[in-house]
Amino acid sequence: MTLDILPLLDVHSQISKPYITETQQQQQKQHLIRQRQNPNMTLDGYMLNHELRFIKKIGAGTYGLIYLVENIHTGRTFAAKMLLKQPPFKQGDPKDSSANKKIIQKTFYSYFLDHPCPQPNPIRLDYIQQQGHQCQFLMEISLHLKVHHHPNVMSIHQVFDLDNFAIVILLDYFEQGDLFGNIIDKQIFQNHPYDKQLLMKNAMLQLIDAVEYCHQNSVYHCDLKPENIMLRYNPNYKRPANSPIIDYNELHLVLIDFGLAMSSDLICCNACRGSSFYMAPERTTNFNTHKVVRNLVDMSQYHSVDVNNTTVNASNCKYLPTLAGDIWSLGVLFINITCARNPWPIASFNDNHNDVFTSYILNNNKDILSAILPISKSFNRLLDRIFKLNPNDRISLPSLYQEVIRCDFFNETTEEKQTQERRRHSHHHHSGHNHHHHHHHSKVVEQLEQIKQPSRKSNPQLFTPPETTGYNSYASEDENNIDDQYYTSENQSRQQQQVDIHKYYYEETKQTNSYTTLHSHLPKFNLETPSNSIVYLE
């Protein structure tokens, strides 16, 4: 029927070329003029809708942009995370996402150039939370919404559908940036004018709280790192006497970017998911097929899970606890916070320059971290309870919380000093014992290159995070990460699912707030967190 109503075109005729009206010609000229005036194709000054104006770009990821936007009526600012529903295929080197980001920038710029007054449709948050798992580009938001009521998780205020072109997520804006920049550039923990350890514990306990809350709601972040933690910090704030360790007036952290998050408490042994510095060893190495690991970890404790339409073999038959990966990442974050360093570039036996990790695991050299980092023996023992090769052996979150409270990160207690003195007197005995203890690892070690004695000079990247701060705090990925190889197969496709979201739009005639706010006790920062009871427009 469609062919019957189409005009017959003669491809050889001059008149078969598309006809462009004079108005369209003028629009094309204006389009080219504006492009020449804005070679970087920024959206500054454009309108997102009738009340939100783009101020400046604050991040860019593999699938979209992050812009600071301002409500022109109230002056309130937000971070608008814009994700393309059908992002372009990666161009060039998979590890270099710069070309892809330029394409994405141009794509968004062209859209807003052609739509000076867009009218994005707000999507009901309850629908996304309940049904978003059916739609790939809503899955991240769905998991985020399940936990965004917690004070240590970024709040989502609204979600817009932009003409089936992109999804826009309206988030709180944290002007002071992410934890990475505040550790490396601003050095807030090292320069804190009061009790530095108390500030560090404040940060650590908030992170444990956030991960525990996510766990209780069946959400596992899977990409914990400083770039995915935003903060507000007041260096002039002085704690009251006997105040609790967690004090949001001093420091407030929130988790962002649930792009790699999962709802399952089990993850396949072949899943490589996260960012290299922070991934647990079971995310970098298939425990069920790696000979070295199988000699160290009894894989019979892990069960197989039947997955529909999946051929089960040795590489995918074992499933490990998802939470254990987040606990490992917390351990690396704690070293970031206390020492502004990373213990190793990646928790893998396959890296030829990974002397510290290899010695730590294979030689059972648990003192190596306290030898290369300025930390106490008690903190070193706590890290040992986190950095267990076997995921089932890692410390629980409640125990970790209590140990952080008790631990002195840098100073030895009197009891610890006495213990060290006794160890020195019995050094010969312990050396013989350790030789016997490690004898059963000899076959494992023979399968690797001979391990060199690690030193601070063995790898320039070993103890220091990337110096560049050209990362994107609000983005799904940043240029410093290895990109798509850390996405599991189910996340590699970003194709839109056939889910009708239009019936869940808010009526545009009603412009009242789509959420209620619970004002916290932080007047200095005017912090607002969505309450558990969200009021939706009908």
UniProtKB/TrEMBL annotation:
Keyword Magnesium: no
Start and end residues of each Protein kinase domain: 52-410
List of residues binding ATP: 81
Domain of life: Eukaryota
Keyword Transferase: yes
Keywords (A to Z) from UniProt: ATP-binding, Kinase, Nucleotide-binding, Serine/threonine-protein kinase, Transferase
Amino acid composition bias (Basic residues), ranges on this chain: 422-442
Disordered: region residues: 415-477
Comp. bias regions, Polar residues: 450-475
GO molecular function: ATP binding; protein serine/threonine kinase activity
Biological processes annotated in GO: filamentous growth; signal transduction
Protein name as catalogued: SKS1
Provenance organism: [Candida] subhashii
